[in-house]
Specification:
Blueprint: E1 2-6, H1 11-17, H2 21-31, E2 35-39, H3 52-65, E3 72-75, H4 84-101, E4 105-108, H5 122-143, E5 146-150, H6 159-169, E6 174-179, H7 190-197, E7 201-206, E8 208-212, E9 226-227, E10 233-237, H8 246-255, E11 261-264, H9 272-288
Parallel strand pairs: 1-2, 1-11, 2-3, 3-4, 4-5, 5-6, 6-7, 7-11
Antiparallel strand pairs: 8-10, 9-10
Helix pairs in contact: 2-3, 3-4, 4-5, 5-6, 6-7, 7-8
């Protein structure tokens, strides 16, 4: 396995400093990562605006200069929205951005939070989305980019639902970005969920959460915590400090034959750069073991 980091890990640092992509590439290399994946290149909150293709060229040049690979590119998306054909076309263009970055993997959300039909069942959503995703997977195949979705966005976050989606799409160029922590958001045991996901894995996010039981509907959530689908509490933290059994999750992936990239995704309240450095050191020990 090779160790990378997601640009999303630098989210708060980017918003506060407006330092731009080149600086986080430099920091990732300085910390020791072998690769850095990117999320939604155009982000005004990070001070990033302009022509997306030109930004992609500049980002790839910076990564090349610092000797970093770009293993994956990820974007937010919703294939159950009001204009699904337009979304398919946009995602095919984004797959081209992934290719320009030199990324071998392109991740998009199946559907993130906003749905055209609020009462849509997840089974019906799969029936709607499968042919749309198949078009994206086929386009990715033509340009040499592996497409995938992530256990992300509530409706398609439980492992059985993502597995059913992948099986319904039924395309060899569509797999799973396995986020070992995100299953907590839908109150699933992370290790058991990873065992379901592992055979489909094309990329992995290593993430940790602090998890607390449901304090009751009338009790306010502590500052920084979010509620899971079942009312339990979670917040991000430095890898190795939380309740996610990252060690066993990575072992399960190895056992299923996964030997690709593992990207650290940090989203906790701790000081960003030290948190990323600490998480890298922890992940490096696990990968070498």
């Amino acid at each position: 396995m090779k160790i990378g980091v997601s640009s999303y890990s630098f989210d708060r640092y980017l918003r506060e400093t407006k330092c731009g992509y080149r600086e986080i590439v430099r920091l990732a290399r300085e910390i020791g990562f072998a690769g850095i994946e990117f999320v939604d290149l155009l982000n005004p909150a990070w001070g990033i605006e302009g022509d997306e293709y030109e930004i992609a060229r500049e980002v790839r040049a910076a990564a090349d200069e610092y000797g970093l690979s770009i293993p994956a590119y990820a974007v937010s998306s919703n294939l159950l929205g009001f204009f699904p054909d337009r979304e398919v076309e946009r995602l095919c263009r984004q797959a081209s951005i992934a290719k320009l970055l030199g990324a071998s993997v392109f991740r998009f959300d199946a559907s993130f939070k906003a749905y055209r039909k609020p009462d849509l069942t997840w089974e019906d959503g799969i029936a709607e989305m499968a042919p749309r995703i198949r078009r994206i997977a086929e386009f990715g195949s033509k340009i040499g980019v592996k497409t995938c979705t992530e256990n992300h966005g509530f409706l398609y976050q439980a492992p059985e639902r993502v597995e059913k989606l992948i099986e319904a799409v039924g395309h060899k160029n569509f797999g799973w970005l396995v986020d070992v922590g995100n299953f907590s958001v839908v109150d699933r045991d992370n290790l058991e969920a990873v065992k379901i996901a592992a055979p489909y894995a094309v990329h992995v996010h290593a993430k940790d959460f602090v998890l607390l039981p449901d304090p009751g509907k009338d009790a306010p959530a502590p500052v920084g915590f979010n509620r899971s689908a079942g009312g339990n509490l979670w917040r991000g933290t430095v890898l190795g400090r939380g309740n996610v059994d990252v060690v066993s999750c990575l072992d399960a992936l190895r056992g299923a034959g996964y030997d690709g990239w593992v990207s650290y995704e940090f989203e906790g309240p701790e000081d960003v750069i030290p948190a990323i450095a600490e998480g890298y050191a922890y992940l490096k020990r696990l990968i070498r073991e």
